[in-house]
Prior knowledge:
Elements (H helix, E strand, L loop, with lengths): L15 E4 L2 E6 L2 E5 L18 E6 L1 E7 L2 E5 L2 E5 L3 E2 L2 E3 L2 E3 L6 E3 L14 E2 L2 E3 L2 E3 L11 E3 L6 E3 L2 E5 L4 E3 L15 E3 L2 E5 L7 E6 L2 E8 L2 E5 L6 E6 L4 E6 L2 E5 L1 E6 L2 E6 L2 E5 L1 E6 L14 E4 L2 E4 L4 E5 L7 E5 L2 E4 L8 E5 L9 E3 L1 H8 L6 E2 L4 E2 L2 E2 L2 H6 L15 H8 L4
Parallel strand pairs: 1-4, 2-5, 3-6, 4-7, 5-8, 5-9, 6-10, 7-11, 8-12, 9-13, 10-14, 11-15, 13-16, 14-17, 15-18, 16-19, 17-20, 18-21, 19-22, 20-23, 21-24, 22-25, 23-26, 24-27, 25-28, 26-29, 27-30, 28-31, 29-32, 30-33, 31-34, 32-35, 33-36, 35-38
Antiparallel strand pairs: 36-37, 39-40
Amino acid sequence: MPENSSASIAVLDRLIEIDGAANITFENVKFANCAAYTSYAHTCGQASCALPAAIEISNASDISVLGCTFEKTNGYAIAIEHTFKGGKIQNCIFSDIGGGAVRLGKWGRGDSRTYEKLVRGVEVRNNVIYKYGREFLSAVGVLILDCADNIVADNTISDGYYSGISCGWSWSPVEISYAKNNKILRNKITKIGQGKLSDLAGIYLLGMQEDTLVEGNRIECVSSRSYGGNGIYCDESSSHYTVKNNTIIGAQSGMSLNKVRAVRVANNVIAAAKCPITLYWTNKGDYRQDLHRDAVIERNIFDWTDGFLRIAIAWNKDLPIKKFDDNIYFEHGQPKDSLFDWAFGFGKGTAKFEKGGFAQWQKATGFDLHSFNADPQIEDGEPQNIELCEKIGFVFFSTKSAGVKGAMRKKLAELGLK
């Protein structure tokens, strides 16, 4: 080590613990340099959800963190674990984090799965989150477990190796889930995955989530190591929520739906994807088969550059979809007859994917009878072919202002972000 230099080693894995308090605000404080030793990696599970946090809160209400900075917090920066109501995490900057920025809820279920013991009514708003997951690659920018009535809005999230936002924590369609009425709105999420991990998304959703809404988000540049580099991923047994008016640009898979039911996917723009949408449903022998009903996929624009639209559905043509129509499809390089790829009987070991053009897809499935295979002329995530879009009832929107607002937007330039 050069003469007159110094070094420091973080020792504490938690800087502040709050239990049984109310009405506390941290404002304009810098939190930095806490440890999360690599032994935690063996017990973290999906999303590194068991990591400690620099600030851990439980059995409390109305605790807010405003205008603070978090650097080199090697687990999550903030974790609100259980029995909590109210509070804001707002106008903060999270950077160079070993884990993720914010975790709402606690790993494992136990007695926290009653409504009174949930994390409820938290606003995560107008924050900059970048360079996260530096030690624990599977950490998420904002992780919401079994929690209700929370808002994640107007955040800029960038440069992570796993998902930007993850919401929901139940893989079963028959098990009670308290993840409900969460709102994920107007966030800008970029540079996710970066070829490091798989089965991830800009926004990852899991399980039953009654009245949850994902709207107005802009997601760019999502890539995986091998599979599942999704813009938005409605994973196992997703149900009872709405995904609408979102823009996804340059994802390996624009959108993926895995064994969903009663999910509405409407009026989204998926542009410059390698594969615009991937859908999988269960086979007849799965105990969840009868519950996989009433999915609606309508008024979306699917634009892709390299690959095909892949559908693997159910066990026969008794399909679990209420409506799959009024969409626009355009594959660059195949302007008149985009390539589709589908299979009935998926999961039984006998299915073979069929490939065909748009007309063959319509005839084989009965889907998209009022849809179009034509160029929506997308520029910067927005369709310019107004006449075509009006034919499917598309409602025009813009996500160019997604992400942080006001003074926080000015700080993006200082941080070298857009």
